[in-house]
Design brief:
The structure holds two protein chains of two kinds. By secondary structure, chain A is of the alpha/beta class. Chain A contains 13 helices and twelve strands. In chain B, helix 2 packs across helix 3. Chain B contains five helices and six strands; from the N terminus they run αααβαββαβββ. Chain B is extended and about 65 Å long. Chains A and B meet through helix 2 and helix 11 of A and helix 2 of B.
């Protein structure tokens, strides 16, 4: 067995390792680093949610659940989704509980794609979109968003990318890594395109609750999902989960809402691969949806203040940064310093021990920017700003 | 609705107007004026550090005293509750629903001092029918802060 590498499937060999990985290795093991490189809340899951998980274990609830997930959880999801996003999904047939949105995304691609089918998605984006499409034998088709648009997606760019092989459009607003939100007018145009070309839309709504008003941190702006436009419910797979809003990343809990034919197909993959999400996570999810709103708002409010703090800091230092409408990331434009985003991030880590992620880790259109996550304590953010200021001071 | 800046000060009273200006994107001078207004009109009663009494070397005793009162024809419990509140040993005083009327929180140097306060001052007040005293043994959470809080969750430094 000399050439093990040749035993790896060709399909997988062509997928590059995540660009974020090298950077991770570099940061790992250094204890002086202030990391703005994380992609998860710094809060632990609220206590009442953890307590529900503990109670689940205490009462001996340790078995498999229905492949679809606990019906009581699906009922809560149905209720919540109707309230927050608009459409009503039947908890018995149109909701599938998954191991995070990542699994749901994988299921959706595997359920929908024939080899060579094209999937349009916008970049910069979460690192797994393109590989997940490729692993499902689809063809990733990138539409680039632009700094000048605050990384919103132009419907005209989507239209230009549509071919006869296009099957799916993937949307993620608010976006990781840019924090961008999509103007309702553009969203409506994209919805029309989907209807006109008979396409499926997968909307990754994981950051939907983390949205901010520019003038008032206490104000929760309204969120519009593409699923709420005419003709969209029947062609949309709405993906959501508990990781970001409820600070439950490690629970690995997500869900998909879609017309029954689609959830049925996804369910086929899910039941043969994952079987079901952990019952402990599911019980915690029920508690989160029933009683978690106040805690979500508390965390959202804190992120809103930190977002202001960081925007203020970047403005003071002289690093241009648009005020993103959601998530917990800023995507400042560092191009004026004459370094690539990778050089900037590596330099900042090397000289000042602050970790930000190069924009290019999220696609070529992230060049010139870095992702700075503000899901970190205020004192650390303040210190990070001081260090960043010192670093850019040396760049002249 | 409570002003978010006031809420923020309740969590961290040390926030300066300049810091608050960065967080709320408002003018620092306007925030300073707002705070002065609250201090002047009694909305902000004061500022203090929340300490872990054990670490701080606190040797005194704290008692929670249930007090039953005879309400007065005019003013109900207010006059006597205010009168009780004036004693410097009393750190908090609340009117309660249920089986008694006031909870009076008393701090003093030792058990004897608290007992003396109850016997000589509190119980002898006109209108006080009875008292029932509970001594605090240990503090687990104080003014929103859990003592011996949780260890930080071990987040990975870089995550997509």
């Amino acid at each position: 067995m000399n050439n093990l590498a040749s035993k790896i499937s060709r399909q997988l060999q062509q997928i590059p390792k995540s660009g974020i990985r090298d950077f991770f290795e570099l940061v790992q093991g250094r204890d002086d680093v202030i990391s703005l490189g994380v992609g998860e809340p710094d809060f632990s899951a609220p206590w009442h949610i953890r307590e529900a998980a503990i109670y689940c274990l205490e009462s001996g609830n340790t078995a498999y659940t229905s492949n679809l997930g606990l019906l009581s959880l699906r009922e809560e999801i149905s209720h919540y989704v109707a309230q927050y996003f608009g459409p009503v999904y039947d908890p018995k047939t149109e909701i599938l509980v998954t191991v995070g949105v990542s699994e749901a995304l994988d299921l959706a691609f595997r359920a929908l794609l024939n080899p060579g089918d094209e999937v349009i998605y916008h970049e910069p984006c979460y690192v797994s979109y393109s590989p997940s499409i490729v692993m499902a034998y689809g063809k990733p088709v990138t539409v680039h968003t632009r700094l000048e648009d605050n990384f919103a997606l132009r419907a005209s760019d989507v239209a230009a990318a549509i071919t006869e092989r296009t099957r799916v459009i993937v949307l993620n607003f608010p976006t990781n890594p840019t924090g961008a939100i999509e103007p309702v007018e553009e969203l409506e145009k994209i919805a029309k395109l989907a209807v006109e070309h008979d396409l499926i839309v997968i909307t990754d709504e994981i950051y939907s609750e983390l949205i901010y008003d520019d003038s008032d941190p206490s104000k929760v702006p309204s969120h519009t999902s593409i699923v709420s436009f005419p003709g969209m419910r029947e062609r949309t797979i709405l993906l959501h989960g508990f990781s970001k809003a409820y600070a439950m990343t490690g629970f690995r809990l997500g869900y998909a809402c879609a017309p029954n034919i689609l959830t049925d197909a996804m369910m086929k993959v899910h039941q043969y691969s994952m079987l079901c999400a952990s019952i402990i996570a599911q019980k915690a999810g029920i508690e989160a949806l029933r009683n978690g709103a106040a805690e979500v708002e508390k965390m959202r409010h804190e992120y809103a203040l930190r977002r202001n703090l960081m925007l203020d800091g970047f403005a003071r230092i002289g690093i241009p940064c648009f005020p993103p409408g959601g998530a917990f990331y800023l995507f400042p434009d560092i191009s004026k310093f004459g370094l690539s985003s990778k050089e900037f991030a590596f330099g900042l880590l090397e000289k000042e021990s602050v970790a930000v992620v190069p924009g290019t880790a999220f696609g070529v259109s992230g060049e010139g920017c870095v992702r700075a996550c503000y899901a970190t304590g205020r004192a650390e953010l303040e210190e990070a700003l001081v260090r960043i200021e010192r670093f850019v001071g040396t760049l002249g | 609705m409570i002003d978010p800046i006031l809420e923020e000060l309740q969590r961290n009273s040390r926030s300066t107007p300049e810091e608050l200006a960065k967080l709320f994107h408002q003018d620092a001078a306007a925030i300073a004026a707002k705070i002065q207004g609250w201090e002047a009109d009694g909305t902000i009663l004061g500022y203090h550090a929340v300490v872990d009494p054990e670490r701080a070397g606190h040797t005194g005793v704290v008692a929670f005293i249930e007090v039953k009162l005879t309400p007065e024809r005019e003013g109900g419990f207010d006059r006597i509750a205010r009168r009780i509140s004036k004693f410097s040993q009393v750190t908090s005083c609340y009117l309660m629903s249920g089986g008694y009327d006031l909870v009076v929180v008393v701090e003093d140097v030792n058990l004897r001092a608290v007992a003396q306060f109850i016997a000589e001052k509190l119980s002898t007040l006109e209108g006080v029918l009875s008292t029932s005293t509970h001594f605090q043994l240990k503090v687990y959470k104080q003014s929103r802060f859990t003592i011996q809080g949780e260890s930080q969750s071990g987040r990975l430094p870089v995550v997509p």
